[in-house]
Amino acid sequence: MSKDIKSLRTRIKSFGSTLHLTGAMGLIASSKIKRAYDAMAAGREYSEAISDVTKRLAACPECSKSPYFGINRPKAEEDTEEGSVPQKSVTRLIVIAGDRGLCGGYNANIFRTVRDMEYVEIHPVGKRAFARYSPETEENLNGDEEPAYQSSEYYTYEEAESEAKLCCEDFLAGRIDRVGIVYNRYVSIISQEPDVFWILPMQRGTERCVDTGVFEPSPDELFGNIVLKNFAAKLYALVKESFACEVAARRMAMDSAKKNAQQMIDDLTLEYNRARQGAITQEITEIVAGAGK
């Protein structure tokens, strides 16, 4: 009986430590929520403004022959035994995952979405994505000098511009045929859904084109510049939205873990009290029985 009581006391202490840990992590996530939401709102506002301009230009006849629509651009070839043949369609995915775990199914849902897709190349954003799709960089994730682009929390607009420039150059050169961004879409603090946003090739605008005057320096150059800015703004906004989802998911996961730990402590405490009461009753019975002899 004494062994059972000691075991229960140890388990209660263990769950107590877990309760304090999950409570602390929940508070840390709560402290980041406001900043994450503000960054998501700012990124979304700028992205929507650039997207509106891009759609209006895409509807203009002067921009209708842009290679960003997937036309008038070279097609990559591959060498075979029968000679050079057009390369199969190449899809590049920019996969945005979190920097840490303990956030429910946040990262797993992203990886499951990617697993069910057809792709050729992956450009990861976030430490978990790098560890998943770039094993050779895993040993660098715990170093003192971590490349900033590995973090979704500290992802900057300059890094988004660099990624946008690389993808646009590869698309125009015919090395890739389309680009998609896999991210978590923020629905509410208790709901985040994995989604894919296809950013290249561009879709022709459905809005009515309004004559705005003369294009300077030229329609193609102007449209190319705005597509690049639209790509960078959208990527940056989706990274910030994904980080807000990560923080919200971790907050909910820690709240759930805290409640479960408290429930386990309550159940074990009740069991401990019963065992202790049984042990005391047994000792009293033995004392009374011994006194009667």
UniProtKB/TrEMBL annotation:
GO terms for cellular component: plasma membrane; proton-transporting ATP synthase complex. It holds the Pfam family ATP-synt. The keyword Nucleus does not apply. One of its GO terms (biological process) is proton motive force-driven plasma membrane ATP synthesis. The keyword ATP-binding does not apply. Its main location: membrane. It is a peripheral membrane protein. It is found in: Cell membrane; Membrane. GO terms for molecular function: ATP binding; proton-transporting ATP synthase activity, rotational mechanism. InterPro entries: ATP_synth_F1_ATPase_gsu (IPR035968), ATP_synth_F1_gsu (IPR000131). CDD domains: F1-ATPase_gamma. Keywords: ATP synthesis, Cell membrane, CF(1), Hydrogen ion transport, Ion transport, Membrane, Transport. F-type ATPases have 2 components, CF(1) - the catalytic core - and CF(0) - the membrane proton channel. CF(1) has five subunits: alpha(3), beta(3), gamma(1), delta(1), epsilon(1). CF(0) has three main subunits: a, b and c. HAMAP family: ATP_synth_gamma_bact. Belongs to the ATPase gamma chain family. Produces ATP from ADP in the presence of a proton gradient across the membrane. The gamma chain is believed to be important in regulating ATPase activity and the flow of protons through the CF(0) complex. This is ATP synthase gamma chain. It comes from Phoenicibacter congonensis.
